[in-house]
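QA checklist item 7 of 12: single-chain prediction sanity check.
[x] sequence parsed
[x] length recorded as 109
[x] structure emitted
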Amino acid sequence: MNKRRKVSGLGAAALLSTALFAGTAHAEPGPGGAVPEHAVVVCDSATMYADYITGRGPTGAKRVLHRGDKVGHTRGAHAVFNGWAAMHDFGPNDWGYLRRDCIGGFGSW
């Protein structure tokens, strides 16, 4: 049994979300059809990763987000693996993973 399986769906969701979110600042359905709930980064800085691999952790550092950056995560609908949450960065309009404890201020904008 291969324990190094990749968490499915985020790569395809990232491509889909790029098309859905291009040029928009409002929430549209993301992975699994859930609309990302508006939130902000509550840590001084937090690295956003492209993917999460079970047994290995987050992979593919994309960029560092800072306190107050606008993100989206729908609690109970978007995946959270070992404290890493699937989230949408409204800046460049793409998906990735961020520490769940760095996402807060839900509904603040």
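[x] summary fact logged: The beta strands are 38-41, 45-53, 57-66, 70-72, 80-81, 84-89, 94-99, 103-104.
[ ] second reviewer sign-off
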